[in-house]
Amino acid sequence: xxxxxxxxxxxxxxxxxxxxxxxxxxxxxxxxxxxxxxxxxxxxxxxxxxxxxxxxxxxxxxxxxxxxxxxxxxxxxxxxxxxxxxxxxxxxxxxxxxxxxxxxxxxxxxxxxxxxxxxxxxxxxxxxxxxx
Length: 132
What we know:
Layout: H1 2-13, H2 32-53, E1 74-82, E2 85-91, E3 106-109, E4 125-128
């Protein structure tokens, strides 16, 4: 009987505290998901606020350049770079953007057909690389 009493008392006492010390601290949950959620909400709110606060100007869809025909533009200034290179600055009407694709070129000729002619009597036409 003493064997049975010892086995029962051990199983009952196994679930109870035997010492007067404090209980072990529970695992603390992490706040990282809460920080990410708060940052995401603040970021989304900022994006929506700035998007609505911006004036919605009409988007220019068409380039002022015509790939089939020559278009006249006013030459504003010529900036010499070195002995054989210059930058030509043209005025585009209505402060529009050129909307030229990357690696494009401009084919330029004089607006007066009689002004510049080559040895064969044809107008001088030259390609140029646009820069911003």
